[in-house]
Amino acid sequence: MLNKKDAKELIAMAIGFSSAEQIEVIIHSFDSALTRFANNYIHQNVYEANTTISVRVIFGKRIGTASTNSLALKNIKETIRCAERMAKFQTENPQFVSLIKTDPKKYRQEIPSVKSFEQISPDKRAEAVRQIVEIAKEKNLLAYGSVSNGLSVIVIGNSLGTFAYHRSTDVFCNIVMSGKNSSGYAQSGAKDFDEINFVKLARIAADKAIRSQDPIEIKPGPYTTIFEPLAVSDFLDYLSAYTFNGKLFEEGRSYFCDKLGTKVVDERITITDDPFCRKGFPLPFDFEGVPKKKLVLIERGIARNVVYDSLTATALGKKTTGHALAYPNPYGPMPLHLVMEGGDITFNDMVSTTKQGILVTRLHYTNVIDPHKITLTGMTRDGTFLIEGGVITRGIKNLRFTENLFEALNRVEAISKRQELVAHEPGYSGRLGSGTITPAIKINDFTFTSATEF
């Protein structure tokens, strides 16, 4: 794993190899280890380590990119030559002005990892799985899922003197408990392995599987619906991709177009992008090396801001907000550290004040129908329950929903005091801890359009 000194030297050498007017180098190095289990047995234990070097070279307003996962100097040179050749065949990008020059003193001091990656052995992950499986056997259920941990280093450097280095660790666990005709789900992510209570997590998933056994079918229609934080995080992820996105705002495709400064959702809703929230996974800079800071996106129901990288900011005559993703980026800038403020009611009181409604653990196959209005469709999964007279009475078969998110967020009845970190599941092409911090919410007349047979 690259330390700060070696990373700085590597970037300096890469910059020296280029004949471009400007060059940017991004290094993403990670170690990732995973133990996967199914049918109450461990069936896979894997480890991956990789380092990717991505370069962006500029001649005037022509930009070329290339990447390699080799640290051999000859391969880095060839990657830069490839990017330079590509740049000369590109059309000019009128939005490009310059790479970013930053003062390293403006980066907030990074929060050190609590435990090193090396201290989390396969045996330690296996012990966590043993605890999970014991709960499954105790309840006559089958457990499926994974326990994984990772170490990531992100380095940004360019020919204008920008240099930024960040090292972080993360741990992720997800559990599905399965019965004969029901299932329950729980997941958790953290910076440190010891922050996750695997027994408690397993009991949550097992309880959902047991309580949803022999689910009944109910008719589709509008219902008062309580969404647990895991489900709410899906909604926020779509706001991040389509509404808070400065590129879509610039192109007239964001719901916030012509709405900044106006009320768009219930006044109890405040959403920020906070890269330094201690509950989450801090990141002190974006992928252009711009120092990050907290940004209010929705304040007490009022649309306040969208996010920019340098290209979208230039197009709108704004300043970058520090939300660039790695170039080339066809999606536009997005906030990666969303925090929705909590409300004034406990989760138990949200349930007890619901005469007739539905409790949703999480969503599945959620997709956008109308990206401008944020009309979504998807299904419930792994723990959907009927609430009657303020009590969770039994499991129900899963339902498909079709709903306009902004209309739904104007029908919010309650927001829970407690917020939870919903960590994003690590992917297969890299590792960097991230997640959304959100409470549970209760929405009136949420529209379910069809039912399933399971």
UniProtKB/TrEMBL annotation:
Residues 24-87 form the Metalloprotease TldD/E N-terminal domain. GO terms for molecular function: metallopeptidase activity. InterPro entries: Metalloprtase-TldD/E_C, Metalloprtase-TldD/E_cen_dom, Metalloprtase-TldD/E_N, TldD/PmbA_N, TldD/PmbA_sf. Residues 221-449 form the Metalloprotease TldD/E C-terminal domain. It comes from the Bacteria. Residues 117-212 form the Metalloprotease TldD/E central domain. It holds the Pfam family PmbA_TldD_2nd. Transmembrane segments: none annotated. GO terms for biological process: proteolysis. Belongs to the peptidase U62 family. This is TldD/PmbA family protein. The lineage of its organism: Bacteria, Bacteria division WOR-3.
